[in-house]
Amino acid sequence: MNRAVFLDRDGVINKIIYHQEIGVLDTPFTPSQFELLPQVGKSIRMINSMGLKAIVVSNQPGIAKKHFDMVTLKAIDQKMHKALSRQNARLDAVYYCLHHPQAEKKELKRRCKCRKPKPGLLTQAAKDFDLNLKKSYLIGDSVTDIQAGKAVGCTTFLIGNHKCDLCRLLSEKKVKPDFIVPNLYQATKIIKKLKGG
After folding, report:
1. Is 145 a catalytic residue?
2. Contact call for residues 18 and 25 (beta carbons, < 8 A)
3. DSSP assignment letter at 36
4. How many domains does one find in the chain?
5. Which position among 8, 77, 92, 141 bears the catalytic label?
6. What are the tens digits of pLDDT across the range 118-169?
């Protein structure tokens, strides 16, 4: 069986954007807003060199909320893949949950099994790539990421500060990441040590 590093997208791979017109921090709504975070290419290149699958698993309700459309999401994806390719890094797959319980688009308004904290994106990837989830890793920046990873037995990494509001939320939800790290690169270095090389 294969092993994977599951990556949330926004806040892990790319910068989160402040959308002044609606006053929220959120995913990029346009390709021009998409920008890789520092050392992300280097980190994913390390994951590739370790023989682990690099797989994005991300809640992306922007279409459901009518912030952008599928064409825009595909254009953002293309920009992400090109930016990583320029750094000799590659993603093996990208899995998005497009649903939201309060979606404005009726066809995307549902309580699904793929929206984190539910682990549907991870279990689908496991089927597609013959993955051993208990020997895989998940790196995210939210409580729901850690919950999804824990639900299937992944070793989990929370990107954040030790003195953070997220830590209080994690405590309330009774879920604890295996590691708290400042960025993707530090998480990848730990995975390399855990893997033994």
Report:
1. no
2. yes
3. B
4. 1
5. 8
6. 999 999 999 999 999 999 999 999 999 999 999 999 999 999 765 566 677 7
180: nearest Cα among 166, 196, 160, 165: 160
Q: Residue 160: CB partners within 8 Å, gap ≥ 6?
A: 141, 166, 167, 180, 182
Q: What's the predicted TM-score (pTM) here?
A: 0.91
Q: Residue 192 burial by CB count (10 A; 0-12/13-18/19+): exposed, middle or buried?
A: middle
- Return the pLDDT at 97: 92
Task: Say how far apart CA 153 and CA 56 lie, in whole Å.
Answer: 17
Q: Is 69 an active-site residue?
A: no
- Residue 21 Cα distances to 17, 26, 70, 78, 161, angstroms: 12, 12, 21, 26, 28
